[in-house]
Design brief:
Layout (H helix, E strand, L loop, with lengths): L1 H10 L11 H7 L4 H8 L5 H4 L8 H16 L6 H12 L7 H8 L3 E5 L1 E2 H7 L3 H18 L7 E9 L7 E5 L6 E2 L7 E9 L8 E3 L29
Helix pairs in contact: 1-2
Length: 238
Amino acid sequence: MQAVIAAIEARGYKSNGDPILSLRSAASIWKVARSTLAARLNGVQSRSEAHSGEQLLTPNQEEILVKWTKVMGRRGIPLTHATLRQYASEISEKPVGESWSKRFLSRHPDLKVKATTSLEKCRAKALNRTAVDGFYDLLREVVEEFNICHEDIYNMDEKGIQLGIGAKVAGIVDRDQANVYSVEDGNRELVTTIETVCADGSYLTPSVIFQGVRRNPEWGRAGNNPSQARYALSNFRD
C-alpha cells in the first residue's frame, strides 16, 4: 500500500496538468502493478481500506501503534504478540483474539518478528583482542613505572544476576532494525557475586549478596558452613 501511495505522489504534474511520469513508468519504478495503480487513481479503494470499518482499529490508530512498536523496539523493550494485543485491546476497549497480531503484521510489512538478544551479549562483543591487548599494555607500563609487586596487584569484579530472566523472546520491531536487544527489568530481584583474585595466584573467598528474609541459625554451627560463608544482619528484612 505504501508503494502505491509513493508511486502516485512521485508522478507529479506539469504546469498544464499533465503527469510528469506516465502510469507505466511510475508502476515500474515503485514495482507495483499498473492495474492496481490505475484503480487507485480512479478512486477504487484498496482491500484494507474497503474493510477498514470491519477492523478492530481505525487506520490512524493502527498507524500510531506501528510507530509505537518501532519506538519500543529501538528502546530495547520490543513488543511481543501478547503485548501488542494488549495495546490493541486498550485502544479499542474490546477483547482481542489470539490471531489478531498476525493479521496486524500482514497488514504492515514494515514490521517484522525477530528474536531478541540480551545486552550482555552486546557487551561481551566489546571484549576483543585489540581491547584486551591495549589493557594489558597499559597495565604493564604502570607496573614497571611504579615497581609494583605481584602480591600487591588485585582484581575485583562483580556480576549482577537478575532472577527470573528467561530465554530469547520474539520481539516485533521495525523491518529495518538489524539488532534487537532486550533491556532487563531493573525491578527484578538482584543477586550479586563478587570475586577478588591476586596476581600471585591467591584469592579471597567469593561473596554472594542477596536480600534475605531471616537469619538461619544453622549457618553458624560447625560443620554446616564448609565455605565459611558470612552474613550481614542489616541485609535481612526482619
